[in-house]
């Protein structure tokens, strides 16, 4: 499928016809009722044009899902796709987070194998699991996005990238229960495992009471740092134009493996602790790069 323009993002809901949604702008009898989109002209066959309906989507609760709990909406192997939103998708995660901490929880909007993808002006909230995973895609833009979930919603990353390159995030707000943007194996410009992460820039970001504000952690999930000699290589990462507050004292944490992270740039950064009685701090281990005009003070950066 090529050259697709979706003027109302909510059309994508019909990719999953087995689910029910609540339409707040559809003019039905009450906002508090649940309706099946198939009853209102949707086909969900991946071919029909369902764009006549518009509104805000609320996904069905946990007990209403069938056996497939992977993704609410999947966009797979599409080129030149533009999604211009204005609406919202609520994953109804509150029905999942407590009773399903250790079981499979679906993502809201999953992109796989997409090229030249643009998503803008969309609100995605309260995903049971990750909000927007992107896998094996290229030339991707997210503009004016809002992705939110409560701070105690476990593992609700806003964006997760795997094996994806040339990704841009602009003018967006993320506030979730885990990572705002998680960059995982085989990503570049943003083979055999564990892959790599390189040529990644974070610029002009406002921070409000954040945790793990600036972090590279190559020891994630292991207590023995010597096992991380084969961890994913990280290089050419720039953090520029950060300002705001950190919930914890560890505002900057570059925790690289014994092989090191290279060409890490910290430039024009001002992060203070939300608690005026505490001082924000920076911790650096085995990171190579440059520091310019950064607060809290960064020591230990290797050349």
Question: How would you summarize this macromolecular structure in one to three sentences?
Answer:
This protein is an all-beta fold and 303 residues long. Helices cover 0% and strands 44% of the residues. It has a 5-stranded parallel sheet, with no helix packed on it. The chain has a 5-stranded parallel sheet with strand order 4-7-10-13-16, with no helix packed on it.
Question: What's the helix and strand layout?
Answer:
Elements: E1 4-6, E2 20-21, E3 35-36, E4 57-58, E5 71-76, E6 79-84, E7 88-90, E8 107-112, E9 115-120, E10 123-125, E11 132-135, E12 138-143, E13 146-148, E14 159-162, E15 165-170, E16 173-175, E17 181-183, E18 187-188, E19 197-210, E20 214-217, E21 234-246, E22 250-255, E23 261-273, E24 281-285, E25 287-295
Parallel strand pairs: 1-6, 4-7, 5-8, 6-9, 7-10, 8-11, 9-12, 10-13, 11-14, 12-15, 13-16, 14-17, 18-19, 19-21, 20-22, 21-23, 22-24, 23-25
Antiparallel strand pairs: 2-3
